[in-house]
Amino acid sequence: MVITLYQQDIVWGDAEANRQCVEKVLAESPKSDLFVVPETFTTGFGDHMAALAEEQEGATLQWARRMASQYNLLFVGTWIVRDEGKVYNRLHWVYPDGSFGTYDKGHTFRVSGEADQIARGTRREVFEWRGWRIKPAICYDLRFPKWLRNKSEYSEQKLDYDLLLVCANWPGSRHEAWTTLLKARAIENQCYVVGCNRCGTDGAGIPYTGDSAIIDYKGFVLPGTTATLDKEKLYTFREHWPFYLDFD
To answer: Three-class SS of residue 79?
Structure first.
């Protein structure tokens, strides 16, 4: 599977400008199976998010459907959604046929005040795409290994997913934590990990260094922001080193 990350410099609070920017990058990117943008890619991450929340069937979902269909890929990103009276930081995976799934951020970031305006999700999700089992996560979720544990509740010998996909707005001041935790989640869960982060400086003056990465199951960073993931090699590694049989 070929995956491409877009390390976006998000335009503060301007959904249409951000969609146009992503659309331009998509047109210029290598042919991929899966295209990922950062957390809150239409607005940026901040106190303004709830005021800019869209309805679930709003403009960004309709646009993402068009992108997924036009480029025959799975489009993944988060944007702020108002649903049944609550506001969520919601990750969407949108298929070429227009269908989609969602995951609501399980750990809203209380230090920034996100937890005061964004409802916390309660369901962990795994979805499938072209033979891969993929677990979505959003930014702060990365700090909680139990939430992301790759183990079936029903069988000691089954792993739930092959790829952990993290969309983030992770500031440059915490660069070391970001890069370390991405590798740790890959090694401990015997899976590929993708971390798609923004770059630039946001409207609150917070700088981001990007550091988006595609990491293999041994903890090695693959070069670039487009890479081919090899499921056969992953499964061979798991078979040879079945550490998951001793997971707590």
So the answer is: strand
